[in-house]
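hey so u asked for the seq, here:
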Amino acid sequence: MNKLKIGIIGLGTVGSGVYKTLKNFDNVEIIKIAVKNLNKKRSVEVPSSMLTDNPYEIVNDPSIDVVVELIGGVEPAYSYLETAIKNGKHIVTANKELLAKRGEEIFNLAEKYNRVILYEAAIAGGIPIIMPVKTILAGNKINKIHAILNGTTNYILTKMDTEGASYEAVLKEAQELGYAETDPTGDVEGFDAAYKITTLATIAFKKKIKFENVYREGITKIRKEDMKEANEFGYKIKLIATASIDENDNADVRVHPMLISKDTTLAHIDYVTNAVELNGFPIGKVVLSGPGAGEFPTASSVVGDILAIAAEFGKSDYILPMMRCNHSTKANPVKIEDTYNKYYISITAPNAIGIIAKIGTICANKNISLSSILQRGVSKDNTADIIVITEKCQEKLLREAVEELKDCTVNSIIRVAD
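ran it, structure tokens below
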């Protein structure tokens, strides 16, 4: 049997999982692994002869068929993969940032050199989503995606919800447990989920989505009071990566907290679990859920991609055609201010006669209908906590209405899922 020769760049958590998993298969062989520090102690024992601290030894090695990139970031990862493709190597990657920011370039290069790039692990960890969309769901016109794509933020929001704790307290706990990085910005400010929804929407809609056109808002302003109020109104708060496209190819792609009805599946996706909900014709709605990160869940997707190449390698001059980039037109980006949403608004207002009427009048003047408005008593400082939930309205008008609430403090504005 001719074994598929593999070179791996990166031997961190995911790389270690890939190494351990690939040992169970006799049709692939790991030739070399690039690491930053040759002397670092690792959770996996690797022969020293297999290690290098120079990734170019891998991408320039003529004996290697597939380069597996697991280091993340745009550079130097892009340069490594560019060289590998030009040297005739297929690519497996888990690099969501690279795909979101320079995916078009790298896919065009791969097509030019007749190489395939597989990236199942870059979207939802261990959840199979790219291959199902490209194959078994290929007969569907997918027009909407709602997804929970970041385990760190989902863990934090779940703990805030179940324990009534503050964001700051739960973040600290998550860092101590290893669920959140020392610098959690990439997760809690929504960057990670934004990278993932950029690529997922591009694949699902068959239209190019630019990362810079994806609206992004994190969870750092979510309060434990918002969690309590959301529950009382029949909702949960989740960081949702959402994308929709209309018949004119206008694509609304964004990441931000949302109030999700307790009647929906996504409302019950808790802790580090991820989920992707696809809507389209003829299938309707389908939800895929599972572990979105971690050593073996992510390794599962990486190894699946490697084995997909192994099964086709040498049998055709153009392997895995369904998995290749097959779209050339760009979607028309929709600006967040032009979108229509329902909103949850938490307001602290002076306890004065007519304050609720004033809020109602300001909203009415902006063509904003109110679904619910509730006052929570009067505090010692003679202010009242007021919760407003609107009907669907334009974001631009909602922002204008909030600007006119000059006598009030707006604590939170969170969009509400349809």
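The domain at 130-290 is CATH 3.30.360.10 (Dihydrodipicolinate Reductase; domain 2). The CA atoms of residues 212 and 245 lie 17 Å apart.
lmk if thats what u needed
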